[in-house]
Amino acid sequence: MTTLERLAATIAARKGADPDTSWTAKLFAKGPEKCAEKFGEEAVEAIIEAVKGDRARLTAEAADVLYHLLVMLAARDVALADVLAELDRREGTSGLAEKAARGGAGSAE
Questions:
Q1: Which strand (E) or helix (H) includes residue 32?
Q2: Among candidates 1, 106, 8, 17, which has minimal Cα distance to 66?
Q3: pLDDT of residue 104
Q4: Count of other CB atoms within 10 angstroms of residue 26
Q5: What is the C-alpha separation between 109 and 95, in angstroms, rounded?
Q6: Is the dihedral of CA 16, 79, 77, 59 positive or negative?
Q7: Count of alpha carbons within 13 Å of 67, Cβ hemisphere only?
Q8: Torsion sign across C-alpha atoms 23, 25, 26, 28
Q9: Residues ≥6 apart with Cβ < 8 Å to 31
Q10: How far apart (Å, rounded) are the C-alpha atoms in residues 26 and 21?
Q11: Which domains does the chain have, with CATH numbers?
Q12: 77-81 average pLDDT score
């Protein structure tokens, strides 16, 4: 099991936990919209560090982004395995071709 898979499992286990004892449970208690908002905040912080060029801060912010992405996915009952399966499906496909097939929506290039 990878680090992300272990983290996703821990997050899933905290879904029903007491919000007074778990930050993850506290996020879930605030609802999926708040989980999405928090993910967005962390993504912006990572962007800022990427622009500044501070590798250590970017590394820390990237970890926060991954954690909050997993929380957001779990809040909407989207499994990490489903996201990984989608990435597997796209593997070997040109990002440009994949984007065109989806009608111009964003892609992971």
A1: helix 32-52
A2: 8
A3: 61
A4: 15
A5: 5
A6: positive
A7: 15
A8: positive
A9: 75
A10: 8
A11: 3-78 (1.10.287.1080)
A12: 97
Question: Dihedrals φ, ψ of 77, to 5°?
Answer: 55, 40
The sign of the CA dihedral 63, 66, 43, 12 is negative
CA distance linking residue 49 with residue 32, whole number of Å: 26
Distance CA(8)–CA(99), nearest Å, equals 27
Using one digit for the tens of pLDDT, what is the confidence trace for 22-72? Answer: 999 999 999 999 999 999 999 999 999 999 999 999 999 999 999 999 999
Per-residue model confidence (pLDDT) at position 24:
97
pLDDT of 66 reads 98
Mean of the per-residue pLDDT values for the chain? 92
So what's the pLDDT on residue 49? 98
Residue with structure tokens 């993850």?
24
Stated pTM of the model: 0.84
